[in-house]
Amino acid sequence: MGSHTHLKKIILSLDEKFASRFLSAIREEGALLCFLFHGLFENDKEVRSGVTDPQQGITVAMVRAFLAHFHELGYEFVSPHRILEGLQPGGKYVLLTFDDGYYNNVRALPVMEEFKAPAVFFISSDHAGEGKAFWWDAAYREGRKCGKTEAEIRRTVAGYKRMKTEEVERELKREFGKDALRPVGDLDRPFTPGELCEFARHPLVSLGNHTKNHAILTNYSLAEAQEQIQGGQDAIQLMTGKIPEMISYPNGNSSVGIQEVARQIGLRLGVVVRAGKNRLPLKIGDLEAMALKRFLLWGDRGIDVQCQAARAHLTLSRLLRGFAVKTTAGWPKRSLGERIGENHVAIQSSGDKAGQSGSVGTDH
User: What are 34-73's pLDDT values in tens digits?
Assistant: First the structure.
């Protein structure tokens, strides 16, 4: 066992004990906890298939374990509409979110129905309209075929995230051919417009805005960002008759200006990719509501432990990371994560998008 893996196991074990002890001393009421998922896998074989970027590596069984954890503790699962109606200041709430618009998200419906848990699915509308694969899946798949290491793919994806989506897609087609963005099958493809329309009719399903073309909006001017967000609104309404009330900024990247643009378009809620509780009451109408925090869960560690860490929002690894940031400000960016096991904490923030989970591009 390598020293890094051994350190990871020690920290995760201590995290479990630390979060459990801390939870016994706090009140959990008065908070909305949002959670982010992407694609859903049936089993570990699918996760390791190489067809898609594994991202969080979450299976349907893990989503069920997640929902069961909060159901047993009396949390209420809510939709964007329920949030806008107003949450009780002393309540305990969970919002379930899925980014991108993978067709494989239909796998969530049976467990959502089992726990009467609504969810919001953020759709990149051009992907649904054109039937094209998501660029990070193409980069991962083609990179694997070429014999690139995980680290090499991770560096490539990190570079792509500083570009506009259209530029990334042109580069992938140039390097891997005109069919580079053709989906392999149901695991990596987006919803079709017809499927999305049918999916949106389910009473537990809400649709959200994820821009027209999964645009990492901080790479665009405000005028271009407005076009991306408005285009997403218009396309989703055209395909489904539904008008999103909530936006997920691709890759978690936003700014006050981008949030204000989204609000002016008519969106009333927004989510980023930064771990944290959203304290109640929410100030609907303020920019605070346009940047709600979300937790990420990971398939290579215990779901219950990660849920405990989210409820406590205080873990030993987070404290160590905060201490390291204060005492090692002059270290190179990646060495900080390598020294304190940042890649393996139970809940991660969006500060360093590429490679935090040991897979590629975890916050698309």
Answer: 999 999 999 999 999 999 999 999 999 999 999 999 999 9
Phi, psi of 191 (to 5 degrees): -60, 145
Give the number of other Cβ atoms within 10 Å of residue 170's Cβ.
12
Of 16, 3, 27, 4, which is closest to residue 317 (Cα–Cα)? 16
In whole angstroms, what is the distance from residue 243 CA to residue 350 CA?
A: 27
Quote the tokens at residue 146: 């070429």
End-to-end CA separation in angstroms for the chain: 31
Helix (H, G, I), strand (E, B) or coil at 171: helix
Distance of alpha carbon 229 from alpha carbon 124, whole angstroms: 10
CA–CA separation, 332 and 313 (whole Å):
27
Give the Cα separation of 63 and 69 in Å (integer). 10
Between CA 131 and CA 264 the distance in angstroms is 29
Instruction: Spell 65-88 as b/e; 16+ CB within 10 A means b.
Output: bbbbbbbeeebbbbbbeebbeebe
The residues that bridge with 33 in the sheet, in sequence order, are 94
Nearest Cα residue to 229 out of 251, 219, 214: 214
Three-class SS state of 295: strand
316-327 helix and 3-23 helix, angle to the nearest 10 degrees: 120
Residue 222 has a CB neighbour count (10 Å cut-off) of 13
Q: Cα–chain-centroid distance for residue 60? A: 16
Chain position carrying tokens 């030993």: 316
CB neighbours (10 Å) of residue 198?
14
DSSP state of 107: G
Show the domains of the chain with their CATH numbers.
3-344 (3.20.20.370)
Cα–Cα dist 143/157, whole Å? 10
Cα atoms in the 13 Å half-sphere on the side-chain side of 13: 6
pLDDT in tens, 113-144: 999 999 999 999 999 999 999 999 999 999 99
The count of other CB atoms within 10 Å of the CB of residue 286 is 10
